[in-house]
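QA checklist item 7 of 12: single-chain prediction sanity check.
[x] sequence parsed
[x] length recorded as 172
[x] structure emitted
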Amino acid sequence: MSNPMVRIQTALGNILLELYPGFAPVTTANFLRYVDENRFAGASFYRTVCTDNQPGNQFKIEVIQGGLLIEDHPSALPPIPHETTDQTGILHKNGVLSMARDTPGTASSEFFICIGDQPELDFGGRRNPDGQGFAAFGMVILGMDVVKHIQNQPAKKQTLTPEIKILAVERA
């Protein structure tokens, strides 16, 4: 059985993702529920993290982040249990898709895509003080040029100005 594929359509181009339910079943099922129930309607890429916009952060990363943005959004689902990279074996390499979170077990609708390898986001990494890392669950198959183009859009600190609207998120 092949892995599910998802296409994110933006005005700047499309990003094709392959998801890994065999390695990260909880996180993948959560993301696919957002896709299948059209819960990402109105979502956007709203954050760009580059090496030069993280003053004071010793552990620099490069990602773009998207999702519903608004806390308590009506389309948001309850948070899911945290699947660490030491459980799944999916490391934060270039193009990896992962869930944003505050503390473990708070991931819901916000996701990010790695630009370059980001080992500080893995289990034991130092980007998050709890050392639990983030839940990686997929990979960009086509469209890293679009990801990099989004990363380089105008931003105030880490907030894209304007946000890059997500036109559709659907199974491919």
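[x] summary fact logged: Helices lie at 25-36, 85-88, 144-151.
[ ] second reviewer sign-off
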